[in-house]
Write a structure and sequence with these properties.
By secondary structure, the protein is α+β, with helices and mostly antiparallel strands. The strands form eight sheets. It has an eight-stranded mixed beta sheet with strand order 18-17-16-15-21-20-19-24, covered by helices on one side. Strands 28-27-26-25-31-30-29 form a seven-stranded antiparallel beta sheet, with helices on one face. A four-stranded antiparallel beta sheet has the order 1-2-3-4, with no helix packed on it.
């Protein structure tokens, strides 16, 4: 067997991601080296207390526990490795490798056991799953419920976000709360941000747009604590990506935007941006809870112990010094109204779009930040509701499209120049450069087509005016130039041009209308002939003449109307007709003809013959009737 055992391609689970490495058993220790990170775990042989062999998703695995309370799990062994490892452990570690089965019943009611750094959920003394408490980032309690959130690993394809445990109420007499006891067991071993010591400074009741509400912000050396009426958030400074300070369009307010990754959560909603709104007129005097020497040593002149000024400036200075990131402000862009932003709408809400030196940011619902390096192309499109506005579309390299709509027409030139100066790919550049300053805003595919459409609309108006005065114009043309319909077109236009100079200046559309007027003359003659044909004297119908016979369907309907009403009480007249139509369709041709013959009779009268239904028989004597 030898003094050592080595296994390659052994996996260790780290925050939901499998890292492969090499595991070596020797007489002195157990050593595992990760191939990805190079981290080495060394377990001295005298500290080994428990060794379990169990079946897991990657074949078989080993769980090792030490006398100091640490637990190590390695997966990826083969079924045939059990005998070798078991014999090695007995000979060198004096520890028996026991087999432990996992519970696969699928039950959700069991027992939670805290063994060292692990929370083991067990059913019938068999573990269902185990949670490394070092991976817990947050633990919140509610009525009979404990919510456990986890640190996220960017390398994991699928991440477990949270687990909720229902804790039944305590039926004992000790008076302890089982929910709080369960949460304290988790927090004692979890990697949770704890507010230890005093805060550097506190900002009271700042207005927050996302998440919405009033929050007290406590500034700690390593994290930011947002305390509201309902929710608490602890945001490590390592999760802050960018800081933005943006002036509102009304020039009286300021936005302070904090970009977060990973985002904070409120229920099922994620907030990638923390947006604070300040009034420019609000001032504050702030004293840091540190000595002057500590402030100078820690912040190197970026902050002072006593500061005063506008609230938004103080907050931004403190955040910049603690997060150690630059604050992004709008660049040289200036819109039509003189502000550094553009009023627009994204999805269903109205907001402000800020063109920055290296990207665009939209506030505030929902906030969107797009960097130039991730933008594939932009597009200027016609507004969907009116021509007095246009849409600005941004397409990213990941094939995501963002449409900012209802932008005022006057902002087009400024925005086009900005996009052009930043050398962004404009999808419809050829058409838009000639369109700058014009009134039309359309898609590049439809620009020429729309111009032609407007021209056709003008010709249609002229045509309609011509149709309304065709008869009078036709009479004047014939009386003015009788018998000259076959003259050349040039002579006709020469004579028309001498009448008025204004008509010749109206444009090509009116010239085409004039060309089409002579073509309408033969059509008018045809129309007049058609109108003169039906001038024959109409025969006057005799009032006593017999009426046209009723159809078989109407005769059948009159005979079955009451039956349909009785079968369907409360039915309306419209529904009676629909029902009768369905029943009539189901009758065969022979039945329809039989209905017509059996229900129709004629009555001879001196001046007329009347047709009536058999269900509404006339009261005349029977010998005056006969069937046809």
């Amino acid at each position: 067997m030898g003094d050592t055992l080595e296994f390659n391609e052994i996996y260790q689970e780290v925050k939901g991601s499998w890292n492969d490495g090499r595991l070596r058993f020797s007489k002195q220790s157990v050593v595992y080296k990760s191939s990805k990170t190079g981290k080495v775990d060394s377990i001295p042989a005298p500290e080994l207390s428990v060794a379990q062999w169990r079946r897991v998703c990657l074949g078989h695995g080993i769980k090792l526990a030490t006398s100091t309370g640490h637990v190590y799990k390695y997966d990826g062994f083969k079924d045939t490795d059990f005998e070798k490892i078991s014999a090695f452990f007995k000979a060198n570690f004096k520890v028996e490798l026991t087999e432990k089965d996992m519970c696969v019943k699928g039950w959700n009611w069991g027992t939670a056991n805290f063994t060292g750094p692990l929370l083991s959920f067990e059913v019938s003394d068999n573990p269902v799953f185990e949670i490394p408490l070092a991976s817990v980032s947050q633990c919140a309690t509610a009525k009979n419920e404990v919510t456990v959130e986890f640190h996220q690993n960017d390398d994991a394809e699928v991440s477990l976000m949270e687990v909720r445990f229902y804790v039944p109420p305590n039926t004992g007499d000790d008076g302890s709360d089982p929910v709080e006891a369960f949460a304290q067991n988790i927090l004692s071993k979890a990697d949770v941000i704890q507010a230890t010591g005093d805060a550097v400074c506190i900002f009271k009741e700042l207005q927050c747009l996302t998440p919405r509400g009033r929050y007290d912000i406590r500034i700690y050396p390593t994290f930011l604590h947002l305390h509201g009426k309902t929710f608490d958030y602890k945001i490590p400074y390592t999760t802050v990506l960018r800081l933005f300070l943006l002036p509102h369009k009304d020039q009286r307010q300021m936005f302070f935007v904090i970009s977060l990754d990973p985002p904070i959560k409120q229920g099922q909603t994620r907030y990638h941006f923390l947006i604070l709104l300040f009034s420019k007129d609000e001032d504050i005097s702030l004293n840091l809870n540190m000595s002057e020497d500590e402030v100078e040593k820690r912040f190197e002149g970026k902050l002072s112990k006593n500061m005063s000024g506008p609230l938004y400036e103080i907050v931004s200075r403190v955040m910049k010094a603690l997060v150690n990131r630059k604050i992004t402000v709008p660049g040289n862009f200036q819109g039509h109204s003189g502000s550094q932003c553009i009023t627009c709408a994204y999805k269903a809400s109205s907001g402000l779009l800020y063109p920055l030196e290296r990207g665009f940011i939209y506030v505030h619902k929902p906030p969107v930040h797009l960097r130039f390096e991730e933008i594939s192309c932009v597009n200027f499109a016609r507004g969907t509701t009116t021509t007095r506005s246009f849409d600005f579309e941004i397409e990213t390299k990941q094939n995501n499209q963002y449409t900012f709509s209802n932008i005022e027409r006057e902002e087009y030139g400024k925005l086009f120049d900005f996009v052009n100066a930043k050398k962004l790919n404009i999808k419809n550049r050829g058409f838009k450069e000639g369109m700058k300053g014009a009134d039309g805003y359309s898609d590049s595919d439809e620009d020429q087509h729309d111009a032609y459409l407007e021209r056709m609309k003008q010709e249609g108006k002229i045509r309609e005016e011509g149709d309304g005065s065709d008869e009078s114009e036709g009479d004047s043309d014939e009386s003015f130039n009788p018998g000259e319909e076959e003259d050349e077109v040039a002579e006709e236009f020469d004579s028309n041009a001498s009448e008025s100079d204004s008509e010749a200046d109206d444009g090509d559309s009116e010239d085409e209308g004039k060309k089409k007027k002579p073509e309408k003359k033969p059509k008018k003659v045809v129309k007049e002939k058609k109108e003169r044909k039906p001038r024959k004297e109409k025969k006057v119908k005799d009032a006593g003449a017999p009426k046209r016979p009723m159809s078989a369907y109407m005769l059948w309907l009159n005979g079955n109307r009451e039956r349909i009403k009785k079968a369907n009480p409360g039915i309306s007249i419209t529904e009676i007709s629909k029902k009768a139509g369905e029943m009539w369709k189901q009758l065969g041709r022979d039945q329809k003809e039989l209905q017509s013959d059996s229900t129709t009779e004629y009555i001879y009268q001196p001046h007329a013959i009347c047709l009536w239904s058999g269900t509404e028989r006339h009261k005349r004597p029977r010998n005056n009737m006969r069937k046809p």
